[in-house]
Specification:
Layout: H1 3-6, H2 11-18, H3 22-43, H4 55-68, H5 72-79, H6 83-99, H7 108-112, H8 137-152
Helix pairs in contact: 4-6, 5-6
Length: about 160
């Protein structure tokens, strides 16, 4: 999924595809651009290397990783990057976005102080033993079958 291919999608389809609305996505792009401008002004007018992907594609790569649980290898094949570069890009984008404080989820204290009622569903996913036949059971079955065939005259 490349930015050039999906930028014309409606907000509903865009949200289904990426997990965020177009408005949130544009805020993410602005946060990354502001961070990059700060870095450039600190270090001067040069950066070590220009990025192969535009900022939008870098954010889409991170969203793809979180939304679809794809491996770095598969994402790298999609974008034409090595998996180590995919990991570096995703880490870079998520650190910048987490430092911007605009994209944080509310903490436990903030949620517990509200008057909202939450419905909790608990799923019992404990391990339960499965009855399996013993290793000798097929041998016993064959012996009983052979004895039955001898008695009835079947081959």
């Amino acid at each position: 999924m490349y930015w050039e291919n999906i930028k014309g999608y409606s907000d509903e389809v865009f949200r289904r595809l990426t997990g965020v609305s177009k408005k949130t996505f544009s805020h993410m792009v602005k946060a990354i651009m502001q961070h990059d401008k700060k870095i450039i002004t600190k270090k001067g007018n040069h950066r070590s290397r220009p990025y192969k992907l535009c900022i939008e594609d870098q954010i889409l790569m991170m969203l793809m990783y979180y939304r679809e649980y794809r491996t770095f290898f598969h994402i790298g094949e999609t974008y034409g990057l090595h998996e180590s570069n995919v990991g570096k890009n995703i880490r870079r984008v998520e650190t910048i976005l987490s430092k911007s404080k605009k994209f944080e989820l509310p903490g436990k204290k903030k949620l517990s102080g509200t008057n909202h009622q939450y419905e909790v569903i608990i799923v019992d996913a404990t391990e339960s033993p499965i009855k399996r036949p013993k290793k000798t059971a097929p041998l016993l079955f064959r012996q009983k079958e052979e004895a039955h065939n001898k008695n009835t005259g079947c081959n």
